[in-house]
Amino acid sequence: MSAYPGVSVVMPILNEERHLAAAVGQILEQDYPGDLQVIMAVGPSTDRTHQIADGLAAADDRLQVVDNPTGRTPAGLNLGIAAAKYDIVARVDGHGELTDGYLKRAVELLDETGAANVGGVMDAKGRTPFEEAVAYAYTSRLGLGGSKFHLEESPAGPADTVFLGVFRKQALLDVGCFDETLHRAQDWELNYRLRQRGELIWFSPELKVTYRPRSTVRALAAQFYNTGKWRREVVRRHADTANARYLAAPVAVIGIGAGSAAGLAGLITNKLILKSGWLAPLGYLLVIIAGTATAKGLSPEARTRLPLVLIIMHLAWGLGFLVGLDRDAG
Fold first, then answer.
1. Is there a contact between 306 and 137 (Cβ–Cβ < 8 Å)?
2. 103 with 33: CB under 8 angstroms?
3. pLDDT tens digits, one per residue of 245-258
4. Crossing angle for the helix pair 129-139 and 300-323, nearest 10 degrees?
5. Which residues contact 160 (CB under 8 A, 6 or more apart)?
6. H-type helices in the chain, by residue range?
7. What is the pLDDT of residues 85-126, one digit of tens each?
8. Residue 177 phi, psi (nearest 5)
9. CB-side exposure of 5: number of CA atoms within 13 Å?
């Protein structure tokens, strides 16, 4: 490209004291050959996130802060898009770090492919053994590895969705930007609407974003429970988006629950056919053990935590999907 267009980077931020400075630093160190604007849409955080964002903006006139009173991700994204002064909009999270050359290559791919959105690999990296196990599960087919953007070996090409994304601003405006009634899964749903409009979503493994996973059992369980609830809402609104990968976790929850109930009843009634219900949870545990035993590249400490991580991901997500949203949610 002879001239690189300006890029507006939009960051929805909430309680990111630990990661915000590093995430912004990676953006500014991109050495992007065009103009750059970074918009931090900061929600009502309970830590020092707002002070850190204000300090960063005061030190560099390419950065600005906008308030996001709701703290919701789609609202923050839309506020950032409204403040964007350039025709290319890149989404970056407060706990993600762009790899070198990300913005430059993404803009080139927009030009080469004609896509409305390009994105790449969610490169999960953990610092503690628990985070390392979570990061592995993100990229494992037994965990979340079914999507192209979780797998570095996925080939470049059209995709249903990508991680984060670098968009043509006009394409976002044409579909009404992010749906603020979807507190989770709003990126997937936005890409669905873009594809319905005939736009191209392009995945490239050349584009990587380092993602910092949840660091505690409680945080991981809450993340996946809420994600499951909101994924159910997306399926409710767009029934054609349901597929085997999304239904696997709720089916597992039903199978384990029903099998365990039958097994307990078998112990009480001494009926063999009911006792055979224990085969469902036992079979699930054997799959988890086999997946852990064949996991590659894990430290011994992370490997011991992987079974718990996988079980939390599957059961929390599946339970959330089955429960769905409260009647007054959204």
1. yes
2. no
3. 778 899 999 999 99
4. 60
5. 188, 191, 192, 195, 201
6. 20-28, 49-59, 73-83, 102-113, 129-139, 169-174, 186-196, 217-237, 244-269, 272-275, 279-293, 300-323
7. 999 999 998 877 888 899 999 999 999 999 999 999 888 888
8. 60, -155
9. 19
Rounded mean pLDDT, 197-221: 92
Please say whether the beta carbons of 55 and 42 come within 8 A: no
Same domain? 203 vs 248: no
Distance between CA atoms of 58 and 9, rounded to whole angstroms? 17
Spatial separation of the C-alpha atoms in residues 1 and 35, rounded to whole Å = 15
Residue 275 φ then ψ, to 5°: -60, -30
Total domains in the chain come to 2
Residue 330 included in any domain? no
Integer Cα distance of 114 and 296 in angstroms:
37
In this prediction, residues 196-205 reach a mean pLDDT of 95
Question: Region 207-233: what's the mean pLDDT?
Answer: 90
**Do both 78 and 192 map to the same domain?**
yes
Judged by DSSP in three states, 196 sits in helix
Give the Cα separation of 291 and 283 in Å (integer): 12
Least confident of 94-108, 230-244, 278-292: 230-244
Q: What distance in Å separates the CA atoms of residue 185 and residue 74, rounded to the nearest whole number?
A: 10
Sorted by sequence, the CB contacts under 8 Å of residue 82 that are 6+ apart come out as none
Round to whole Å and give the CA distance between 117 and 244: 25
Per-residue pLDDT band for 147 (boundaries 50, 70, 90) equals low
Same domain, 35 and 183: yes
Q: Which residue range forms the structural domain that includes residue 303?
A: 236-323
What are residue 298's phi and psi, to 5 degrees? -100, 145
- Contact between 229 and 324 under an 8 Å Cβ cutoff? The reply is yes
Residue with tokens 């990111």: 16
Tell the residue number behind the tokens 């030009």, with chain if given: 111
